[in-house]
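Checklist before submission:
- one chain only
- standard amino acids only
- sequence pasted in full

Submission:
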Amino acid sequence: MTNATLHVSQHPAILHKLAVLRDVDTEPKKFREVVRELSWLLGYEALQDARTRPRTIRTPMESMEASELGDRIGLIPILRAGLGMVDAMLELMPTAQVWHLGLFRDERTLRPVEYYNKLPDSASVDLCLILDPMLATGGSATAAIEVLKKWGAVRIKLVNLIAAPEGVGAVQAAHPDVEIHCAALDRGLNDKGYIMPGLGDAGDRQFGTGRSD
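Returned file contents:
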């Protein structure tokens, strides 16, 4: 596994919030808040190389050449856990388009199954950010990237809260051109395909629908 496309944040605010997110005693309301806060911070880092174009503005003092966002940004949350990351990203980039992909993991094969796709007929953005709290086996991420490339997307990034080496390796092997931004690279997967030490099931913890050990 190479690290050329893997970016693990070391920002103190991210490390602090990640500890709150992992804590088993963090209840769904607080969990959702921290997912949002972490997504904002990670999105800020992931968009550092977004392209800009010049714009003439007038300050209270005089006219000047400034910059505005040049890239059209597309946000692709992986249902359902990725939904909790969208609002924070829209705060960063209010003009971003949001397209949804539904992928679930077959518990027997650990392979992704696509059940929902709201992408338009052809690519309408310059940079796609795939939003998913967990990068575990890499199956869903790899499948989502394949869908986006067939759609016509050229620049794609993954934004994850926590990643496992297995998932990072799978994405890098299948799509070496895709950058991965995350808050932590954990030890690995258990026999059920969950990240260790991880934080459990991100969807269940956000929406209060259960608990996975």
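Reviewer check: The radius of gyration is 18 Å.
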